[in-house]
Amino acid sequence: MFLLQAIGLDGDVRKEDDAARTFKHFGRLDILVNAAAGNFLVPAEDLSPNGFRTVIDIDSIGTFRMCHESLKYLKKRGPGKDLFTGGTIINITAVIHYGASWYQIHASTAKAAVDSITRSLALEWGEDHDIRVNGIAPEAIEDTAGLVKLAPEEILSQIKEKPLYTFGEKWDIDMAALYLASDAGL
């Protein structure tokens, strides 16, 4: 019988100590899933540099910090790893930066950076350390804080009336991550 252990730990991705504590729990790591997000609606002219910076710190720098802290555990020859096999990083982002978005310049910029981090680490760490780095960029996901907080109810009700439009579900993200972390995702 093969036993897998998975945990979720509360912490702040902006704090190095919280990131380091995450990986010390088991002493080894096979898969890292980054899903930190900060967002709120605000016109660009009303957005303070501090508000902009906070979202960048959570989404972009937080993602990089978690990836950076995980490197020693995920690379081949790391704790619990053999000489040839590294681990997997999955960065969950969004699609808001693929086009223009109202009142989300801060989140759009942060998610574009996460995509860039994902591509760059896939290139560097895939080659150097045999770490698979992939991203998942969903559209709106039902029953999430992001959808409730960022979409007014009158717009949600109009969208739900369209028979061909459905929101994604958390299950969709789960299954995409499972695929990318499995041997099928090689």
What fraction of residues sit in β-strands? 5-15%
Structural class: mainly alpha
Helix content: 40-55%
Radius of gyration: 18 Å
Q: Whole-Å distance between the termini?
A: 24 Å
The count of strands amounts to 3
Structure description:
With 186 residues, the chain is mainly alpha-helical. Helices cover 46% and strands 8% of the residues. It has six helices and three strands; from the N terminus they run H-E-H-E-H-E-H-H-H. A three-stranded parallel beta sheet has the order 1-2-3, sandwiched between helices. Helix 3 (105-129) links the parallel strand 2 and strand 3. The chain is globular. The mean pLDDT is 86.
Helices and strands in order:
Elements: H1 16-24, E1 31-34, H2 49-74, E2 88-92, H3 105-129, E3 132-136, H4 145-150, H5 153-160, H6 170-181
Parallel strand pairs: 1-2, 2-3
Helix pairs in contact: 1-2, 2-3
Structural descriptors:
46% helix, 186 residues, three-stranded parallel beta sheet, mainly alpha
In short:
46% of the residues lie in helices and 8% in strands.
